[in-house]
Amino acid sequence: MSGSPPGWLPCDRGTRGLWSSWTVTQWPWGVVMERGDVTADVVVVGAGYSGLSAARSLVDAGLDVVVVEARDRVGGRVHTVTTPTGAVVDHGGQWLGPGQEHLASLAAEIGVETFPTWTEGSNIELRAGERYEFTGLVPTSDPGAAADAIAALLDLDLAATAVDPAEPWTHPDADDLDRTTLASWVEQNVEHPVARDMVTTAVLGVFGVQPAELSLLYVLAYAHGGGSLSALVRTTGGAQERRFVGGAQQMAVALAEGLGTRVVLDAPVSAVGWGLAGVTVTALRRVGGADPVPFRVVANRAVVAMPPAAQARIAFDPPLPPARAQLIQRVPMGSVTKFHAVYERPFWREAGLSGQVLADAGAARIVFDDSPPDASHGVLVGFIAGGDDRRLFPAGPEGRREAVLGDLAAAFGPEAGRPSEFVDLPWAAEPYTGGAPVACLGTGVLTGFGPALRRPVGPIHWAGTEVAEAWSGYIDGAISSGKAAAADVLASIGGEVGGGAATHEPGGRSRGDQ
Amino acid sequence: MATSEEIVEAYGEWQVRCNANPRLAKMLRGWDRRVHLVTSDSGLTFTIAVSGSVLADIVPGSEGVPDVVVTASSEDFADMFWGDLNPSEKYVSGDIVLAGSSEDVMRLDAMSMVAFLDR
Lengths: 514, 119
Prior knowledge:
Helix content of chain A is 29%, strand content 20%. Chain A is of the alpha/beta class. In chain A, the strands form 4 sheets. In chain A, strands 1, 2, 10, 11, 12, 13, 14 and 20 form an 8-stranded mixed beta sheet that branches. In chain A, strands 8-7-16-17-18-15-19 form a 7-stranded mixed beta sheet, sandwiched between helices. Chain A has a 3-stranded antiparallel beta sheet with strand order 5-9-6, covered by helices on one side. In chain A, helix 3 crosses helix 7. The radius of gyration of chain A is 24 Å and the shape is globular. Chain B is built from 5 helices and 6 strands; from the N terminus they run ααβββββααβα. Chain B has a single domain (4-117), classed as SCP2 sterol-binding domain (Nonspecific Lipid-transfer Protein, Chain A, 2-Layer Sandwich). The longest helix of chain B has 16 residues, at 4-19. Chain B has helices spanning 4-19, 22-27, 74-82, 87-93, 102-117, and strands spanning 33-39, 45-51, 54-55, 59-60, 68-72, 97-100. In chain B, helix 1 runs parallel beside helix 3. The interface between A and B is medium-sized, with 23 and 20 residues.
């Protein structure tokens, strides 16, 4: 690398590897290297947890890697910010649950501490305009409805145990399960209307779409990947059990720091050319407000680590095979706005409340206590999800704030309507994810296109939480998908590493052949 | 601390309620299991069999090989069977510990909660 001619790096945060880092002896067919092109063994598209984890595994295995990221930051759907008043809030993924070993071990390795989500005290149920308090998982103001909801959750959890999250389409009743929406299952299996609302609220919180938009097969596979649907909705004992001191993005930042100049920010990928032997990724870099500058990485393999729907914006050349091309038209992202209301202190705790809310209507239907571990100030976090989010698309920041604060005041009293600060992020407006928390598969997608979700296309491998077999939709799934993609890449180039050249044919074409 | 007699008496009430509950009967369909109860404070053990959606009488002592083992204080067992305690809450807080396959644990957690709600 020290031998790279000065001025050849097309950007200030270019990559370390130019010609001298080229350890792969076989060139991508038909690629004519141009001045400014960067070469690598593997190019990773996307610097979220999946892309960074893939890159780290590949670098650890001795390969040259370049990570190309559209945003001006790493972390993808995990984004921690410090607000003007000093509150640390996670706009995206933030929790750690039991069984999420990839995330837990990464945090431990980097030295990020965790603490339990605050759950002491009573939860609040808002139903038909009335306010009730309850403890446990399910609101109990209507015991018959609660019993119905628990029975329904158990039915779904038991059904989920029979669905293999890696290959849901192999279930003997896959066709039936995949032509049933969760909404029609609820209509047929849950009698009590209040229990139906509870299931709907839980689904909104998990997926960010309405039950009518979800294939039952997909819901069962997703639930099994995280243990069970009831585990996904729990705080203690479930997916919202613990939080990270200082926020959930730190581990991504640490991974990126470890990768150093291999990570190229502000570089939205516009085109991916691919052939039997390699891949050329073209990004348009925007630096300092100047016109976008094309930035090319020529590599042996690519790991595309971004939401499948967002891949539709990339011009693949040649086009993706039909199954992959149509799959990525059928993987819409959930509609979620995540909001934080910051207060001088977590006053609800003084009233014996946990800060958790479940509501059958409104903007703030799912709320948790998100105060820092020392409770130096109070924070409520919640989700505007699915149809509620869409209703508020035209409302703008002020409209959302008003709607949410009205709901919080109904739950916690007028004090909750007067936060010192209110921040939110409508993920539907985020250009590079287009929604959150995850792709939500409707009927017929898994049985029609499922195998295309993970199957590599030529030199292109896929990562991202949607591709994960366990904890899809969660940070943990993103990490494991990245590691899995890296392992697949390594296997595809011979399974051995260390200088790269050792695994490739001696006497292959070299740079001079171009 | 609750005595063995108190736990047996409380269970008797709970058993009658559960066996009369059609929702529970549906939830227990096909779930024939042996459950051991162990009191963490007094070392008492009990055995409950579930068969054909029916809860059998409680038997003092550990009989046979259990599918699920429930460990809790004697007081919590008695309170749960009397319907005075939210079992799911105690389970989440770790005061009641369920050991068994995840499916069996899931089912026992749900059915004890439904029994509590439908009391």
